[in-house]
Amino acid sequence: MKKVVFFAVLLISCAMSAQKVKVLSGNLKNLKGISEYNLTFDYKDIKVDKFKTEEEFLADKMKKREEKGTDEDFRKSWFADREDRYEPKFIESFNKRFENGEIRVGKELSNAKYTMNVKTVWISPGFNVGVVRRDAYVTGIVTVFETANPSNVLVSIEYEKTHGEGAMGFDFNSGHRISEGYAKMAKELAQGIKKNTK
């Protein structure tokens, strides 16, 4: 009986923390016929976990690492992970949903007629200290607009609390956990495009 109650609570908690997808404007159907997107990322004014600002989060984490002398290393890797981990993971996850390359995204496609912007709103990096761990979560807004006319927005979608985990629980690096959240966001987006542009 205890096992049944445990699994029921587990399922409820998973459902409560599940990703929410909300169309803010436009429609995914507007993307029909588009084969490529120039991809841009925006991290301005992101919130991190329970902190009011990203800098407040960094100050807290760096203070805990001062004695070991790894405080500046943490700060550098926190920002480097954007280009080194999050963005490549998003691109890889999105593009592999289209095995024949019928639709693709890339940061180098500056001549593409349409741009896809991924605006990071909130990150919960989670943690993994071996005996106890918590997954990462990412909230982001994906907006597709005409490159030459940014005011022409085809669709804008918020992906709230996209779940990030990886390496079967051996995800000790926060950048790895967070990057999996971007991969999940890209997967959901690609599946949404497939479903709505048949």
Automatic annotation (TrEMBL):
Protein name: DUF4410 domain-containing protein
Domain of life: Bacteria
Stretch forming the signal peptide: 1-18
UniProt keyword annotations, A-Z: Signal
Organism: Flavobacterium azooxidireducens
